[in-house]
């Protein structure tokens, strides 16, 4: 690209110099032709010769000037356009390659965490850490490389979170949890003590925690930016669709991207929403909804495994306590 620009710059300098010289010569020729035109008579004399010679030279100059104009380096311009298009395609390819690697990394993280669950042994379990921490680890590609996914080089700060309608947690009081044993296994009779819902914040470089309480979606008396965010999340929850929404907060303009998290093994039930908040002005690619949808499928499977881990761990501890007592 630099070589092509150097060629174009040199050619423009030549054109500018030639144009200046041509203007001066044309002015001289016009003056001489004007004088010769007033001096000629019916006989062929030296003024007639000067007029003819100047006229021929003027025509020749016009032809040369036109030739230079037609010879303007369109090939260089075409090369610049082709070079630019190639760079854009390479950039698109590199972005797609990076995103494929991110997805692969997330899937490997899902397999690594869920394939080693053992509720009997004392090794690390999937649910040994809070779900917010686990999801931040799982969705590290989105959390760390949001600018690549949104294809922006101007914005580097984002607020990213997930709203889940339901997920499991360890109870504050195990006495509130009752388990029943039947022929086909052991189950928890009442899930209320171990059920939770709400926002999980994975990244907050925009410092918006003040308007992102955990129970935001269920809040009734809210207004302003918090209400706008709630509206966007609810729209995705209710309509099972990807959407964007603009809002203002502290005299700054933001946009929120919402992508539905379907329940595992379901295409009809939404269990949550992945949202990304950024400053207004980003024109992201049309494939963002599909990319986030892939990560959301991974998230749904992960949450399902996490919930199973919680339940298995609770049952295991309750059984141990019953045996000990």
From TrEMBL:
This is Uncharacterized protein. The chain crosses the membrane at residues 12-35, 47-68. Keywords: Membrane, Transmembrane, Transmembrane helix. It comes from Flavobacterium fragile. It comes from the Bacteria.
């Amino acid at each position: 690209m630099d070589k092509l620009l150097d060629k174009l710059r040199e050619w423009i300098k030549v054109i500018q110099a030639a144009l200046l010289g041509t203007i001066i010569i044309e002015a001289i020729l016009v003056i001489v032709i004007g004088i010769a035109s007033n001096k000629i008579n019916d006989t062929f004399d030296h003024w007639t010769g000067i007029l003819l010679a100047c006229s021929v030279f003027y025509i020749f100059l016009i032809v040369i000037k036109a030739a230079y104009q037609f010879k303007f380096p369109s090939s260089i311009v075409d090369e610049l356009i082709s070079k630019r298009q190639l760079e854009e395609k390479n950039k698109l390819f590199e972005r797609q390659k990076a995103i494929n690697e991110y997805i692969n990394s997330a899937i490997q993280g899902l397999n690594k965490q869920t394939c080693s669950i053992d509720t009997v042994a004392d090794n690390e379990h999937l649910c040994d850490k809070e779900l917010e921490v686990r999801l931040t680890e799982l969705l590290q590609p989105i959390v760390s490389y949001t600018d690549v996914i949104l294809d922006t080089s101007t914005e580097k700060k984002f607020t990213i979170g997930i709203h889940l309608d339901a997920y499991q947690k360890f109870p504050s009081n195990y006495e509130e949890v009752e388990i029943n044993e039947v022929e086909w296994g052991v189950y928890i009779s009442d899930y209320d003590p171990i059920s939770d819902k709400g926002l999980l914040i994975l990244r907050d470089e925009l410092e918006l925690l003040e308007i992102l309480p955990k129970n935001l979606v269920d809040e009734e008396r809210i207004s302003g930016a918090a209400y706008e965010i709630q509206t966007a999340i609810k729209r995705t929850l209710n309509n099972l669709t990807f959407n964007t929404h603009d809002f203002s907060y502290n005299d700054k303009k933001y946009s929120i991207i919402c992508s539905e998290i379907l329940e595992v093994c379901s295409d009809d039930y939404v269990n949550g929403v992945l949202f990304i908040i950024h400053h207004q002005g980003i024109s992201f690619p049309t494939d963002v909804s599909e990319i986030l949808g892939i990560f959301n499928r991974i998230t749904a499977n992960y949450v399902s495994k996490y919930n199973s881990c919680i339940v298995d761990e609770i049952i295991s501890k309750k059984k141990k306590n019953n045996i000990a007592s």
